[in-house]
Design a protein that fits this description.
The complex is a heterodimer of chains A (553) and B (535).
Chain A (H helix, E strand, L loop, with lengths): L2 E5 H8 L5 H11 L2 E6 L2 E5 L10 H11 L11 E2 L4 E4 L8 E8 L5 H16 L8 E7 L7 E6 L5 E2 L8 E2 L3 H4 L1 H6 L9 E5 L5 E4 L3 E2 L13 E7 L2 H17 L3 E8 L4 E4 L5 E4 L2 H8 L5 H10 L3 E3 L2 E4 L9 H12 L19 H15 L3 E2 L5 E2 L1 H4 L12 E2 L10 E2 L4 H9 L8 E12 L7 E12 L5 H14 L5 E4 L5 E11 L2 E9 L1 H6 L6 E7 H11 L1
Parallel strand pairs in A: 4-15, 5-8, 5-15, 20-24
Antiparallel strand pairs in A: 1-3, 2-3, 6-14, 6-15, 7-14, 8-11, 9-10, 11-12, 12-13, 15-16, 17-19, 18-19, 21-23, 22-23, 24-25, 25-29, 26-27, 27-28, 28-29
Chain B lengths: L1 H4 L10 H6 L2 H8 L2 H6 L9 H8 L3 H13 L3 E5 L2 E6 L1 H9 L2 H9 L4 E2 H8 L3 H13 L3 E6 L2 E6 L1 H19 L5 E2 L5 H12 L4 E6 L2 E5 L1 H7 L7 E2 L4 H5 L7 E2 L18 H15 L3 E2 L5 E3 H4 L21 E2 L1 E2 L8 H10 L14 H5 L1 E3 L4 H10 L7 E10 L11 E10 L5 H14 L5 E5 L5 E10 L6 E10 L1 H8 L5 E7 L1 H8 L12 H6 L6
Parallel strand pairs in B: 9-10, 11-16
Antiparallel strand pairs in B: 1-8, 2-6, 2-7, 3-5, 4-5, 12-15, 13-14, 16-17, 17-21, 18-19, 19-20, 20-21
Helix pairs in contact in B: 5-6, 7-11, 8-9, 8-11, 19-21
Classes of the chains: A alpha+beta (553), B alpha+beta (535).
Chain lengths: 553, 535
């Protein structure tokens, strides 16, 4: 989630009020933003992805002063008309939507330029989904000749100077040479043509979704009037982004002017700052929140969150992207009411508790083994592939379930059995006292085409005895004790297993079903784990065990 | 039981006053360890450690231990003095038993001259010793050598007889050093002369600075020494004593019951699992039913059913473990998946606008490791029927995040999920349940703040106040499920309170763990020594 840095002094100027630091901290948190720290004049605030309109100092101050009750209610913005026109060519199918505006009478200083750039960047990352859904450009108006055309072109035929460059380059080199080209080229993977903004004299304003032109795409302290374009794949997303920009610039003192957007099949002007409406059912609000608010009170709380209200309907500011359902209004009412002001109530509702039967069963096994002086371990479900196959003397082509791009690179598969994890524990505990008798009950993963997830999960029990005295008899005694205590009749059959010494490994069979195996670990396996103390082990299917016990009882 | 009603202390021990009345030296005597019992009576005659080793026939370490214990009990005191001590060296030890070589040589011929071979034989001299003796004795004019036939005939002279006397004196001196050497300052003039002569010769004596302990019994020690050491004191109760009632005539040694004992280790549940067991118990006590489920899910179950938009940043690879080998595994969607698709795209019948995008089937089929246990809550909602309500469910289970392991990040960890499905549930109840749970965990101060999750509205962040550090700790998220989540699963807009809480910070704070990786390190020493979860 993005963090923005606000200047406390600027914020206080906008709000028109100084706040003690504790109150500031508390109010910022209770507004629905996560205060990270306050350092000197800098306030670091994390903005949740549902509120991109708070990503600028202006936007934040607007919401904050409303929340504090200083300037509440729906803020109205006037839109003046202009002669500016943008022609949207049919060719921009890869990024078909755009909305534009002009803002005049604005004074830029270094700080404001930084703020606009911060907003542009953070908004494109979150609201614009890393520019994939939308991205935005701001230009000094005086350098542009209208009408502008939004058109797709073969980049080989286009030449311009990307932001920060001293020389013109061919547009097809942008992905190779420009930082934003390198960063976002995945968006254009399948494109042969790219959208460009080109003015009436043929000057390139920008190449989407990468960069403005260095000639006419840069605002500075002399800029008084700006042109703003937003482009993307979703019109609503593009429009709300534009609204966030123009309201921010208007809050800085600018005047908003409309731009005529000429699509091949329709014409309209943007921005559209008319609030959308949503019906507010006061009963529904009170029921969800457990409150008894009157309509009047609700209107007051809505106003504190920047909404208007008319004829039973909430008027939603045009820069709010997150109001999908009346529950979104309910949340804002709750925030304005103050989360801290809700009582804590446990309703007297009778429900019957029930522990999961299998979980209960596992606990019985665990305490039986603890009674035999075993230590329970907790190991990861992820395991290096080599550990669960090669190290165990198994064929390295055995099918296990791999993970895509695990950040902890060596943990690249899901374990298909438990024993390797426990041997890893022994390997890491050679400096500790013996005997080391350990066990674990945990999930293992097997490929299974029948399952919706293509994965079959089971719970296994693995028991390991590691000491100079351990041998086949010792592990068999443990398995025998466990199964006797569960009143399960079983047969032990000699078998072969590459991880164990031939002639010292057996299968546990119940009703012709294999429950698992036990035996003395092969010295080769112990060697692979650098274990130099004799080790015996068993691995049993805990789910099957549970089934059998349930059937018997 | 009589002793419980008498005025004894609760533990059944006699009180201190009673103890004082008994003869304290008698008690001390009965506490003596068998080694102490062997050493103590000998101290009067043998006031150094070396002497005690000889006298007691014990190993040196046994004597050292006995003396240490006796000193601890203030039965003896020891004093160390720096002394120059002359003692036997390797050859000296042998000579102190059989005599010096030239002494033996001269003794062989003191009554009559002897042939060389005879001398070697009777004086037990090897060739080297013999040659040394010849050289030495000729220099002192102690012998006369004559050639007779093929042999040498050796006769003692008058000087030789004097030499022999001197040698005998040296021999006595060596013998006097036998046990532990002697303090140089305590030697007579003649002895000093012997020492100076023998010092010149190879490995006979050595002179060292030593700090021998002189042992003196204390007043109690003297008293104890006079006691009857022949009384048999038993170390342990044996089966025989119990069977033949011989215990009646036996005194058992009093033990030093306050002394430290070696540590033992036992079997145990993993410390984290002890805490998890307690967490589960809290929800059970509050009337919740346990729900369980798989770790691997389709994105459809884990995210789409919870109305997480398909382009949500959390769905990217950095956060989520997708399964597969280069290409992500694609699982199967249920027959009625269109319900979810429509809610995403248009909001369907939920009264919502939806996310207003084109829902992608392939994105939903991707198989992943569950990113939250809330997936189980969604699946549970789907199974519920109207007549089951109100209902409350919980799960405590692992969730997975594709993160690098470091001291505060793990790629798998526990999450607590709970849902309350109740037509009358509201936001105040959510606060109530959270408060109750954390109170039982030992964190009675709970605070909620506005937050954002795609599947709840209102959404809250849950903080608890650390009772000692007095800092707020973020412990998870909660809220009321959005109608876009509930309606497709339950067919009705019923309030569902939901939470997904972390345990890690409470558990590690309890056990004093600062590196979260210790939870899965399985250091057996740590597992053995870690205190129990007591709550």
């Amino acid at each position: 989630m993005p963090t923005i840095i606000l200047k406390k002094s600027v914020l206080e100027k906008i709000i028109g009020k100084k706040l003690p630091i504790d109150k500031l901290k508390d109010r910022i948190s209770m507004l629905g933003t996560d205060l990270e720290k306050i350092e000197g004049d800098e306030i670091h605030v994390e903005i949740f992805p549902n509120r991109p309109d708070l990503l600028s100092e202006q936007g934040f101050a607007r919401a904050f002063s409303s929340f504090l009750g200083i300037k509440t209610g729906l803020k109205e913005y006037k839109i003046k008309s202009s002669n500016c026109k943008v022609i949207v060519d049919k060719s921009v199918t890869m990024r078909p939507y755009t909305a534009c505006a002009v803002v005049k009478n604005i004074t830029f200083n270094n700080e404001r330029i930084k703020e606009i750039m911060q907003m542009q960047e953070k908004l494109a990352t979150t609201h614009g989904r890393k520019r994939k859904k939308s991205c935005y450009g701001v230009y000094p108006l005086q350098k542009i000749n209208f009408p502008i055309t939004y058109i797709a072109k073969d980049p080989k035929t286009m030449k311009f100077k990307p932001l920060g460059f001293k020389e013109e380059i061919s547009a097809d080199k942008v992905e190779e040479l420009h930082s934003t080209g390198k960063e976002y080229k995945q968006i254009a993977e399948s494109w042969t043509k790219y959208p460009f903004y080109i003015d009436n004299k043929g000057k390139i304003l920008s190449m989407l979704p990468y960069t403005n032109s260095d000639d006419i795409g840069k605002i500075d302290e002399t800029t008084k009037e700006v042109f703003i374009e937003c482009t993307g794949t979703d019109y609503q997303n593009v429009e709300i982004a534009l609204n966030m920009f123009v309201t921010t610039l208007a809050d800085m003192g600018g005047d908003i002017y409309a731009v005529e957007m000429v699509y091949s099949d329709k014409k309209f002007t943007t921005p559209n700052l008319n609030p959308s409406e949503m019906k507010l059912d006061t009963k529904y609000v009170n029921k969800r929140l457990g409150l008894n608010l009157s309509e009047k009170e609700m209107i007051k709380y809505l106003a504190a969150m920047g909404y208007g209200y008319k004829n039973g309907k909430a008027l939603i500011p045009a820069y709010r992207a997150d109001i999908l359902h009346p529950v979104d209004l309910i949340e804002d009412i709750a925030i304005a009411y103050g989360y801290e002001n809700f009582e804590e109530i446990i309703p007297k509702v009778a429900t019957i508790a029930q522990e999961d039967e299998f979980e209960k069963f596992k606990k019985k096994i665990i305490y039986l083994l603890v009674g035999l002086n075993f230590l329970e371990t907790n190991s990861y479900h992820l395991i290096p592939k080599i550990l669960q196959l090669d190290n165990m003397n198994l064929n390295s082509n055995t099918e296990v379930i791999p993970l895509i791009d695990s950040v902890s690179a060596e943990y690249n598969t899901l374990r298909s059995w438990l024993l390797p994890s426990l041997l890893q524990v022994l390997k890491e505990n050679k400096h500790n006292e013996y005997p080391q008798n350990i066990f674990e009950i945990a999930t293992i993963f097997l490929p299974d085409k029948q399952k919706a997830t293509l994965v079959n999960e089971k719970q296994h029990l693995s028991i390991v005895l590691c000491s100079p005295e351990t041998d086949y008899t010792k592990i068999k005694q443990v398995v025998d004790y466990l199964l006797r205590m569960l009143s399960i009749e079983y047969v032990i059959k000699e078998t072969e297993h590459p991880s164990f010494i031939p002639g010292r490994v057996a299968e546990v069979v119940i009703n012709n079903k294999s429950l698992g195996f036990l035996g003395e670990l092969h010295p080769k396996v112990l060697n692979n784990f650098a274990i130099d103390t004799p080790t015996t082990a068993a691995e049993l299917d805990c789910n099957l065990l549970f089934e059998l016990v349930k059937k018997n009882n | 039981m009589k002793q419980f009603s008498s005025k004894l202390s609760l533990s059944g021990l006699p009180d201190k006053k009673n103890l004082a009345k008994q003869d304290s030296s008698q008690i001390l005597f009965e506490k003596l360890h068998p080694l102490e019992r062997k050493v103590l009576p000998l101290i009067k005659e043998n006031n150094t450690q070396d002497k005690l080793v000889l006298a007691s026939k014990l190993q040196e370490v046994e004597v050292i231990r006995a003396l240490q214990w006796l000193e601890n009990k203030k039965i003896i005191t020891t004093k160390e003095e720096l002394k120059e001590v002359v003692s036997l060296d390797a050859n000296g030890r042998e000579y102190s038993k059989i005599g010096l070589p030239e002494q033996r040589f001269l003794e062989t011929i003191q009554n009559s001259p002897q042939a060389a071979d005879e001398i070697k034989k009777f004086a037990k001299l090897n060739d080297a010793e013999y040659s040394v003796c010849i050289g030495l004795l000729r220099k002192k004019n102690a012998i006369i050598i004559k050639k007779e036939a093929n042999n040498l005939q050796i006769t003692i002279t008058e000087d030789g007889r004097k030499t022999l006397e001197k040698q005998k004196y040296d021999y006595q001196f060596l013998k006097s050093l036998a046990a532990e050497g002697r303090d140089i300052t305590a030697l007579t003039l003649d002895e000093t002369e012997s020492m100076n002569e023998l010092k010149q010769r190879k490995d006979i004596i050595k002179i060292e600075l030593k700090k021998p302990k002189t042992i003196t019994p204390t007043e109690i020690g003297k008293e104890l020494s006079k006691m009857n050491f022949s009384v048999n004191i038993a170390e342990r109760v044996t089966q025989d004593m119990l069977k033949n009632n011989s215990w009646k005539d036996i005194k058992f040694r009093r033990f030093d019951v306050e002394i430290n004992v070696p540590k033992i280790i036992g079997g145990k549940r993993h410390f984290e699992n002890q805490a998890i067991e307690y967490v589960k118990q809290i929800w059970l006590d509050m009337g919740f039913r346990e729900m369980t489920g798989d770790y691997a899910h389709t994105a459809y179950q884990d995210l789409d059913m919870l109305f997480v938009p398909q382009d949500h940043p959390a769905r990217t690879m950095q956060d989520t473990f997708y399964l597969g080998d280069k290409k992500i595994l694609l699982g199967k969607l249920p027959k009625d998946y269109k319900k979810i698709k429509e809610v995403h795209e248009t909001g369907a019948n939920t009264g919502s606008k939806g996310w207003q995008y084109k829902w992608n089937e392939e994105e939903a089929r991707k198989v992943l490791l569950r990113t939250h246990t809330t997936v189980l809550s969604a699946l549970k909602l789907q199974q519920l029927k109207k007549q089951d309500l109100p209902a409350k469910f919980f799960n405590v289970g692992k969730v997975f995040r594709n993160e690098a392991l470091d001291w505060k990040h793990l790629f798998e960890f526990y999450q607590i999920d709970g849902i309350v499905i109740d037509p009358n549930a509201n936001f105040k109840h959510l606060k109530g349940y959270l408060r109750e749970f954390f109170g039982k965990m030992g964190y009675p101060d709970v605070r909620i703040r506005p937050a954002h999750f795609p599947y709840t509205e209102p959404s809250v962040e849950v903080d608890v106040l650390h009772p000692v550090k007095k800092e707020w700790i973020e412990l998870g998220g909660a809220g009321i499920f959005r109608p876009e989540v509930v309606i497709p699963l339950l067919d009705e807009d019923i309030p569902v309170l939901a939470w997904g809480l972390g345990t890690g910070r409470i558990v590690s704070s309890y056990y004093g763990i600062t590196d979260i990786r210790d939870m899965y390190k399985n250091d057996l020493k740590q597992l053995r020594e870690m205190k129990l979860w007591i709550k």
